[in-house]
Amino acid sequence: MNSTTPSSRPVIISPDTCRGEGDPSFRTPPGQTLTSKWPVLHFGEVQDIDRDGWTLEIDGLCESPLTLGWKDLMQLPQVDLHCDIHCVTRWSRLDNRMTGVPVSAILELVRPLPEARFVIQHADSDPDGSWTTNLPLEVFGGEDCILAHAHDGQPLSAEHGGPVRTMVPRRYSWKGAKWLRRIELATDDRPGFWELNGYHNDGDPWREERSGW
C-alpha cells in the first residue's frame, strides 16, 4: 500500500501494520511484548563505519553486478516505510518510520537471473566480517523491504546498523542485516550465522519460527 508524505517521498505501508485495522493487539505476533524503546541486540561489537567510505556490492546470479557508494545510494529512489519491528527475543516496536531505498529498485538495476532463488546478505560483524543471513528472493524483494539509512527522521545510528541496514518487516528483525555490505544472489539456500546457531531458517514471527531445532 502506497501513499505520499508532505516531504514528497512515497510511503510504503507494511501490510502487517493494517492487521485488525491497526489495532496493536492484532498487530502483535504471538509471544511478543510491546515496547516503545528500540533495544540493541546483535552479535559482537557495534561497527563504526564511515558512510562516505561505505560500499555495497550486489552480485552473484545477476546480469549487471553493481557496487554502490553512499552518494550512489542517495541518488536512488527514496521512500518512507511505515512498519513494525519484531525481535526473536520477544519484543515488538510498532509504528516505525524507516527511510531508504526499496529493495525492488536495487533488483531492477542488477536484474537477477532466472536461476537466482535466494539472497545471502553479508554484513560487517564480529569476529571477521563474515556474518550472513539468508532469505528467499521473493521474500527479500517484498513490497515493504528496503535498504534503510534513517529511522523516525534521524540517520540510522551505528548501534542499529547504520549507515545502512536491511528492513524485512514480515520476518524477525535478525533477517534484516545490520551494517550491510553485500547482497549475493544464489541458486542454493545457505543458512547464516544465527540460522546455524539454532534460529529458524525462515523466521516468520506470526508462526513463532524462533528455533530451528
Query: Would you tell me the structural class of the helices and strands?
Result: mainly beta
CATH superfamily of one domain: Oxidoreductase, molybdopterin-binding domain
C-alpha geometry: globular
By DSSP, the count of extended strands is 13
Largest sheet: 8 strands, mixed
- Helix and strand run: EEHEEEHEEHEEHEEEEH
Structure keywords:
eight-stranded mixed sheet; 213 residues; Sulfite Oxidase, Chain A, domain 2; 12% helix; five-stranded mixed sheet; 13 strands; mainly beta; 5 helices
How would you explain this protein's 3D organization?
The chain has helices spanning 24-27, 70-74, 103-110, 137-140, 193-196, and strands at 2-4, 10-13, 33-34, 55-60, 66-69, 79-86, 91-102, 118-123, 131-136, 146-151, 154-155, 165-167, 180-186. With 213 residues, the protein is mainly β. It has a domain at 50-77 and 100-207: Oxidoreductase, molybdopterin-binding domain (Sulfite Oxidase, Chain A, domain 2), CATH 3.90.420.10. A hairpin with a 4-residue loop joins strand 6 and strand 7 (91-102). The longest helix is centred in the middle third of the chain and has 8 residues, at 103-110. The protein starts with a strand and ends in a 17-residue tail after the last helix. 36% of the residues are buried. The mean pLDDT is 93.
Summarize this entry quickly:
With 213 residues, the protein is mostly beta strands. Helix content is 12%, strand content 32%.
Describe the secondary-structure layout.
Layout: E1 2-4, E2 10-13, H1 24-27, E3 33-34, E4 55-60, E5 66-69, H2 70-74, E6 79-86, E7 91-102, H3 103-110, E8 118-123, E9 131-136, H4 137-140, E10 146-151, E11 154-155, E12 165-167, E13 180-186, H5 193-196
Parallel strand pairs: 2-6, 3-7, 4-13
Antiparallel strand pairs: 1-2, 4-5, 6-7, 7-10, 8-9, 8-13, 10-11, 10-12
